[in-house]
Write a structure and sequence with these properties.
Blueprint: E1 4-9, H1 14-24, E2 29-32, H2 42-51, E3 54-57, H3 61-70, E4 77-79, E5 91-92, H4 100-105, E6 109-111, H5 115-129, E7 140-146, H6 151-159, E8 171-172, H7 182-187, E9 196-202, E10 208-215, H8 225-235, E11 242-244, E12 267-273, E13 277-284, H9 288-303
Parallel strand pairs: 1-2, 1-3, 3-4, 4-6, 5-6, 7-9, 11-12
Antiparallel strand pairs: 7-10, 8-9, 10-13, 12-13
Length: 313
């Protein structure tokens, strides 16, 4: 059996390592690698890109741009950095959006969505696309994430034998309201402005809970949370990685824990509310559907593999 040759540029980072581990067990994939001495050698990396059937870039933005600028146009590349997510010449790697899976199938350049952006777009894009929410409506978004989203440096800070007391409590960040995910959160929802976005990191390894509050009065021709729930369920019907729960379905303790899908690659949507207000919530793993899982999903589509191959559901 012939195997797909896959190169993970940046396989020692958090996202790259999980991709490498996920694909390591696949019988139809051969993972290409470089010796330690050549991992920062651009020529050596470009040679692997040319050899591979597909390359994952798990690099800082500038390093990703540098490699892409010299890579063959025919090379299939999935970039997990922020560098190309709103670049018109790249395809955004959120397969569940209308028409996006077909674009990914034929693309050579796919930008993997950001973790916070994944939850926000999953909740808001269908509302604007279907005309239920005006594109100029001012939204806010709250997102809780595990510390693995900060990469190796933050993981080391949280897992140190001796650490500062501040790591015991949730910490708000992105306080300048200029988080790097905001451009894609606006562009991929069709909104005229980004949300007021408040991300929070807490003392657990991985998992994410993204919430968007909306007054019922802001929605067009919608009179209940059940209607929004049905619309979202219809929108994501047949999407193997997204599940929309029944309206107001509560856990036994009445609380949504953000780490419930840690280690998984799927995403859950919940809708709660009352006669005047709704709360839309997306729960997933920041390293799964929010990073490595989404990257592998895109790879599968680009190579014609089963969409969920190698994923943990």
């Amino acid at each position: 059996m012939s195997k797909y040759k896959i190169f993970v540029d940046g396989a020692v980072g958090t996202t790259g390592l999980r991709i490498f581990e996920r694909l390591g067990a696949a019988e139809d994939i051969e993972l290409l690698s470089l010796p330690e001495s050549e991992r920062k050698d651009l020529s050596a990396r470009l040679a692997k890109v040319a050899e591979a059937d597909l390359t994952f870039l798990c690099l800082p933005d500038e390093a990703a741009k540098e490699l892409v600028a010299q890579a063959p146009e025919t090379a299939k590349i999935c970039d997990t950095s922020t560098a190309h997510r709103v670049n018109a010449s790249w395809v955004y790697g959120f397969a569940e959006l209308t028409g996006q899976r077909e674009k990914i199938k034929t693309a050579n350049r796919v930008a993997v969505p950001g973790c916070h952006a994944t939850g926000y777009i999953a909740l808001v894009r269908p509302l604007i696309e279907k005309g239920l929410l005006a594109a100029d409506y001012p939204l806010s978004c709250h997102s809780l994430t595990g510390y693995s989203g900060g990469g190796k440096a933050m993981i080391a800070e949280y897992e140190a034998d001796i650490r500062a007391e501040k790591y015991d409590a949730p910490r708000a960040y992105g306080l300048s309201l200029t988080h790097k995910h905001l451009p894609e959160m606006q562009a991929l929802t069709g909104a005229q402005q980004p949300p007021i976005f408040t991300p929070v990191v807490a003392d657990y390894y991985s998992g994410m809970l993204v919430t968007v509050p909306i007054p019922l009065s802001a929605l067009q021709a919608v009179k209940s949370g059940e209607q929004i729930t049905k619309m979202l369920a219809d929108y994501y019907q047949g999407a193997p990685l997204i599940q929309v729960h029944p309206f107001a379905q509560l856990p036994e303790d009445g609380m949504l824990n953000a780490n419930a899908l840690s280690g998984k690659d799927n995403l859950e949507i919940f809708i709660y509310g009352n006669a005047t207000q709704l709360l839309l919530a997306a729960r997933f793993d920041n390293l799964g559907k929010g990073a490595s899982g989404a990257a592998i999903q895109c790879m599968n589509i680009m190579l014609g593999r089963e969409e969920t191959a190698g994923l943990a559901l």
